[in-house]
Amino acid sequence: MARAPKDPNRPGIIQRSKQRFAQFGQVFGLARAAEPRLPLYVGAIVLGFVIIGALIGAALGHPIYVAFLALLLSSFPVLLLVARKAERGAYRQIEGQPGEVGAALGSIRRGWSFQQEPVAMDAGGSRDPRQMAMIYRAVGRPGVVLIAEGPAGRATKLLALERKRTARLIPNVPVHALRVGTGQGPDVVATHQLVKRMNAFDKVLTKHEVPRIDKRLRSIGGVRPPIPQGIDPTRFRGKTRPR
Length: 243
Prior knowledge:
This protein has helices at residues 13-34, 38-60, 63-73, 75-94, 100-105, 152-169, 194-200, 209-220, and strands at residues 112-114, 120-122, 133-140, 143-149, 175-180, 188-189. By secondary structure, it is an alpha/beta fold. It has two domains: 14-94, no CATH class; 100-235, no CATH class.
């Protein structure tokens, strides 16, 4: 069988390798911005693996060979560390910007159905997007989670109103309320901790009930204003429906 003709537009191995290294460099730079001591941590991990590998190899009579294998194995924890720090750096970039909750919800991989547009908002008479209080909604097995962002006073008040409204629509479903921002309080959460906090709620619904409740809430509707100038949530990560 004749081979398929090579695509002249397809990048070669060397070019693809350069692209991957460039991408890793960007991710590492983002991670280092979030954790300046990251190179020290990476060096400590690699050195620790190599030393342990050399000691084990010396006992087996092959110190160099085992140390080399340990060096290769060290890449796994290094990549995991860099990925986590880069994710934290990405969250830091969006903190305090309009639409940060929608962007954070975009990082959910599965288990939740959500809208990246706010379901309620209060501009407070201001045209500044940073002064808008907005409420986002997510539906999952823990129930309905309403997340507020914006000035603490208006966001808290709007969150309470939307929670009462939602509870009347679905009286037998738990409705949780969170506010993204700074300050103290059981309902206040940082942007990078939002998804973790949502997943920490007790699961009370079945997988079949989640889409039914979400469909009911969407059919009733609510405020659907355009996202103010700030973050484009679709560029953070795409929406994932519950499986």
